[in-house]
Specification:
The chain has 16 helices and no strands. It is mostly helical and 333 residues long.
């Protein structure tokens, strides 16, 4: 059951925003407490934040993915378009941000930061969550297919291009590929999809309790992932760079979704699965940069303050984007 059927339009919007705010506020509160009070020496905040991420990626996400793929209809060959559109979405956002940076004649370190912010998408914390809230639990598998090659694209293409605009040498191309292969989070994600798809093909039906709990698990995973984000936010950088960052709003929330969704409609994806694929594409292609977009600027000595401003400005814009996405998805049903 979708949040829309449960709560109605206003309720669904409030529910989505509440999940985001809860995670960010908890993270920010922990930051304030850590700055005002001396924490016990045995308690490591970095370890705690990393532990939250590990719980989501190694425990909750596998359960969510296995459950979603177990019950999804995966019989149509045109589902292969989903990961392809995922890659195109990354390139499109990166390319438009790059063209804007060149037009503004920004210095190299700022071009690199704008490029990375344009490329990265918050598909884990936000994309999947909004697909569940606005479409239903059945959208999780298709959202996962959209982001199937996301990490591979970041590490093998986006990182090297970002590095070319920085002043610090990064890892060799071979080491980036090995990083993907050895990354337990990426490998567990792929394994979860394979296990879920195998169960889908088996005569075993998905347990009812597993399907009923999936939406709640997605919400919990989103909150836990947003706690470290709230903890690391640096709001002061927005004052300096908001005039640049604000131009990512029409790129990320207008140009990219229009091109992606329009292209998908033209090749007939709107007629599949009662329009769910097109609805997933609308949501997933209209996501702000992930907090991971702050990693390449730190690695390659790009403009870290600009990257942070980009992330805060675009993420804050969801307060206006979410109602539009909700109405658009419901209009498409």
């Amino acid at each position: 059951m979708t949040a829309e059927r449960r709560y109605g339009f206003i309720g669904s919007f409030i529910y989505a925003v509440s999940i985001i705010l809860i995670g960010l506020i908890i993270g920010r509160a922990i930051r304030i407490i850590a700055e005002k009070y001396r924490l016990p020496e045995w308690f490591s905040l970095n370890y705690f934040m990393n532990a939250l991420i590990r719980v989501v990626l190694l425990v909750l996400n596998p359960i969510i993915l296995i459950s979603a793929f177990w019950s999804a209809d995966l019989t149509n060959i045109r589902l292969i378009y989903l990961p392809i559109f995922g890659i195109i979405t990354i390139f499109l956002g990166a390319g438009l941000a790059f063209l804007y940076s060149k037009w503004r004649q920004l210095p190299n370190d700022q071009i690199g930061s704008m490029f990375v912010s344009g490329a990265f998408l918050n598909l884990g914390s936000f994309g999947v969550l909004f697909c569940v809230l606005f479409i239903g639990e059945e959208a999780v598998a298709y959202a996962a297919m959209f982001r199937l090659l996301e990490e591979f694209t970041y590490y093998t293409i986006i990182y090297p291009i970002a590095k070319s605009y920085g002043s610090i040498e990064g890892n060799a191309p071979g080491s980036r590929v090995m990083r993907i292969i050895k990354d337990p989070f990426i490998m567990i994600t792929f394994c979860s999809i394979i296990v879920g798809a195998a169960l889908n093909l088996s005569p075993i039906d998905r347990f009812e309790w597993l399907g009923a709990s999936n939406s709640a698990l997605v919400a919990l995973a989103s909150i836990l992932l947003l706690v470290p984000v709230g903890f690391s936010m640096r709001i002061a950088s927005v004052k300096k760079y908001w005039k640049l960052s604000i131009w990512l709003i029409p790129i990320k929330f207008l140009a990219v979704p229009l091109i992606i969704t329009g292209s998908a409609y033209l090749i007939g994806l709107g007629s599949l699965y009662d329009g769910i694929l097109l609805q997933v594409l609308v949501i997933m292609s209209a996501m702000p940069p992930a907090v991971a977009s702050l990693v390449p600027p730190r690695l390659y000595d790009l403009d870290m303050e600009l990257a942070n401003s980009n992330w805060i400005v675009t993420t804050s814009s969801l307060i206006f984007v979410l109602p539009i996405l909700f109405m658009l998805v419901n209009w498409m049903k």
